[in-house]
Amino acid sequence: MLWGGDRARAAPDLLLNTYAKDEMETRDPIIRLFNVSKRYGKHYAVKDITIDVDAGEFIFVTGSSGAGKSTLMKMIYLAERASQGQIIVDGMNLDRISHARIPYLRRNIGVIFQDFKLIPNKTVYGNVALVLEAAGERSAMIRRRVMQVLETTGMADKVNAFPPSLSGGEQQRVAVARAVVGNPKIILADEPTGSLDSESAQSVLDFLMQYHDKGATVLIVSHNMQLISSTVRARSISLADGTLVGTATML
Ligand code: ADP
User: Fold this and answer.
1) β-strand pairing of 58-62 with 234-240
2) Best probe residue, ligand 1, of 37, 60, 71, 244 (max atoms within 8 Å of C-beta)
3) Which residue ranges have their beta carbon within 6 Å of ligand 1?
4) Is 93 a domain residue?
5) What is the pTM of this model?
6) Which of 24, 32, 189, 232 could be joined to 220 by an S-S link, Cβ 3.0–4.6 Å?
7) Domain count, the chain
8) 238 inside domain
């Protein structure tokens, strides 16, 4: 089983992203924020943030509760619109993106939440397959790809289970499978280990590091930086009261 193990082991074939190599070598920014703010009423959740994220980077977003971390992530996958400033994701200007283009943006982004957000009355298979069904993929391809990704996350034997019957760690592995099944270039994970025991948390982070090794750009909101293997070169960005207060690179 590849899930949760030694990341030195051979990475699974299904995670080979054809886009990855070229983009990593040029390392152009895949996400750009220029003077971005988000206001709710008079309150700034995010204030005047400018940052570039290079393709293939691994980034931790830290900061205390209410610092604006989730809001920042939501603006990148367009669950929220910025009040001011510009966000460019994979060449798409989110301020100008048409409604019809939003699915193309979201296809390039896999999102993982602290509370999993699985659909309770769909099986594990159904939850993961949904992404590819929505993208209009053929059913034979969907079957193959979903089973591959569930093998990788160690959840293939629970393919017919419903999420409420699974542990938190198992649900998060399904959520991770769902996030990567479409081979997105970007993974956004908002406190993905926040409600997991340390072993499950380590498994989730190991998998995200494996996926990152294949070329994906990964942004994680987490307080659990010590769980990250020292073999991953990561940047940490810290927020306080909606503003960017620090950035550091860790090896
Ligand atoms: P974090 O993820 O760092 O805990 P959030 O991004 O969730 O912080 O929130 C940042 C600030 O914006 C907080 O003060 C929060 O109360 C406020 N906020 C977030 N979402 C909303 C919303 N939908 N409506 C009003 N205020 C919000």
Assistant:
1) parallel
2) 71
3) 40, 45, 63, 65-71
4) no
5) 0.88
6) 189
7) 1
8) yes
